[in-house]
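re: ur question from earlier - yeah i can do the single chain one, its not a big deal. heres the input i used so u can compare w yours
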Amino acid sequence: MFTVSEVLLGFGLIVLIILFVFRAGIVKEVVLLPDNYRELLTDYVKFYRQLNEEGKVRFEKRMEHFLSAVKITGVNAVVEDIDKLLIASGAIIPVFAIPDWQYINLHEVLLYPGAFNEDFDQAGSDRPIGGMVGSGAMQNVMIINKWQLRQDFINEPSARNTAIHEFVHLIDKMDGTFDGIPEIILERKYTGHWKNMMETTISKMKTYGSDIDMYGAANTIEFFAVISEYFFEQPALLKANHPDLFEMLVRIYKTG
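and the output i got, formated as tokens:
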């Protein structure tokens, strides 16, 4: 027998699949990439640079589809070609190995010139936020800091990437629960194990510190986003330092 929660989750996943298909079919016009897109991607996006030729073409097509489906709007900031490419890259990198993925829970990305606060103020000294996924009146909207967006792709030795972080939040939210467990892409039999791994690692981080960004110790939601940044930005280092986490992320993102 299935529990009520299991039935509801199954129904929700069916609805999401229908929305995937529906949205994929309503894109009216493909947004073409700028003429120098290959040069820009090669210079700034390590993930793209490491793909073979077939993979690069697939990455480019996925970017075109994303930019056709999601509006990018500057708020006191000019949206340049490089900004569009980096936002689209942040969207595609986590789901590159997942065919036909659509961010049905995102309609628009707002590009701010710098950091902001919880009231979306762009002025003043107390502006700690570099990116966020909206809720309430801002549902289906992402806000990202133009300066941070560029710095994260330029500083390749770093394990941080704000764009990837925020798109992982969207992946997490896709199953209807925002909890660090991406049930839309993680097999159910592994969800309990993943939850335990996150909670155990967070506890160790709080007690002993960690090479993992300590922002990830806030809760499982932020841990999933932070460790995903680490996974895509510094995979070899994550594998060496945290092999169990690395193997589970390979399973989640289908990169094995």
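Confidence is low (pLDDT under 50) at residues 17-27. not sure if urs matches, ping me
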